[in-house]
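[SOLVED] Need 3D model of a two-part complex

Original post:
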Amino acid sequence: MSYIKASMAGNVWKVVVSVGDQVEQGQEVAILESMKMEIPIESEVAGTVKAILKPEGEFVNEGDYLIELD
Amino acid sequence: MIQSILIANRGEIASRIIRTCKKMNIRTVAIYSEADRDAEHTVLADEAYLVGESSVKESYLNQDRILLIAREANVDAIHPGYGLLSEQAIFAEKCRADGFCFIGPDASVISLMGDKLQARKTMMEAGVPVIPGTDAVETIEDTLFEANHIGYPVMLKAASGGGGIGITICRSDDDCQKAFEKNKKQAALFFGDGALYIEKYVENPRHIELQVLADGKGHTLVFGERECSVQRRHQKIIEEAPSPFLTDERRQEMINMALKAAQAIQYQNAGTIECLVDEDGMFYFLEMNTRLQVEHPVTEEIYKLDLVEWQIRIASGDTLPWKQHELRTTGHAIEARIYAEDPVRFFPSPGTVKEIELPEAPHIRHECPIKAGSVISHFYDPMIAKLIVHGKDRNDAIAKLENALNDYKVIGIKTNIPAIKAIVDHPIFKQGGATTAFMDTYKDELTRRIQEVNQ
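Solution:
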């Protein structure tokens, strides 16, 4: 089990993977929006998406878990 | 003359406009969101009205609510500043329909220049050089044909894209083949539209723009250029005037081009023609911003004029009193944008400013609405202030900027001041050699320097 974390505080603008998707290392999985900037979030590891922990529109702090991978 | 203005904006630009209005004895009406109850522009204006919740969508972008406040406050005119509603043709139209003077160009011109493909077409018809490119390309065969026709390197771009997403630089058919399906998929995922188009990729370009003022009575003037090549993530960090790259001859060619472009669309009020300039000095129209620019102070400093004042005068029906050949500049000006962000990673850093100390000297100008206790909200743009210096020449301006940065203190949030120091101290910047590729080309070296400065 591993997690993809938020690299900064902001709103989850877009999640571009779904539960069950295969994710590769370095793949863009979501975009955070903070202070009018869009920051792509990449997965540091390969795996299968088990859960989307923060849905689009939700505010997250730096380090919060966004996506759970198997 | 306009007697009262509602400023449909926030932050430094709202304060900037209010200050000029005060100088002109114009009554000012501010709007503020919940997060901006104690902001400088809220306090500085003669009157201030709560416009909505903290998010821009529910406040500064709420057109109907803003117009309601304008009616309630009984203003003559609305100044949109930059960003937010400044290039929303529909807002300009609504203002005029409601009987308010919109301080900017006509809605039809905003609309025309806001459509990338139409703007390109209009400029090409006017004889203005634009970057070679295509309409949407549907198939890989079309893509390869067009890419070869334009000549590598090219950029394969998402037609509905932005923020650098869905853009790939292709230097060969092989690159195009690899990028085509990937970009199409990414464009569809992120923008709901998989359409792609091709544009010639200009290697190591300069971003140079020209300031236009036109009074709608046949007088169109170009107040020289600003060079804005130092950028990160397509956002400008440092701007200067004049450009260290242009020769007098090329400068005059670009001024002539900007005059032609503005006259072709019968432009009125202040606007900016943005260009890419390649290593050989060839320039291409990129887009026109039909509003005031963030970096307008560097032009003001070397031409010794107030662009906001002239925006208001033109909207009031005044005529520009100069002729193009009469415009003169003095010295060199540089603007540094102070962002609330981690200086190394360039990630946003909202929070509360505990202490702030600004350097003071006759050659230093601040556009800084924050003070100790100001809350920098994640809802808004990361730019919290602008530092502008004027020197007798470029070297003098750089030295003054370095001194000012050393005395600039912000405690409580992270800022990009260490990054600006590292950039300004870099030999390539000092030589005037920075292109838009500067930050990427020297990424490792700059990161090391930023970390050293940050310690």
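Edit: The interface with chain B takes residues 7-11, 14, 16, 28, 31, 34-40, 59 of chain A (CB under 8 Å).
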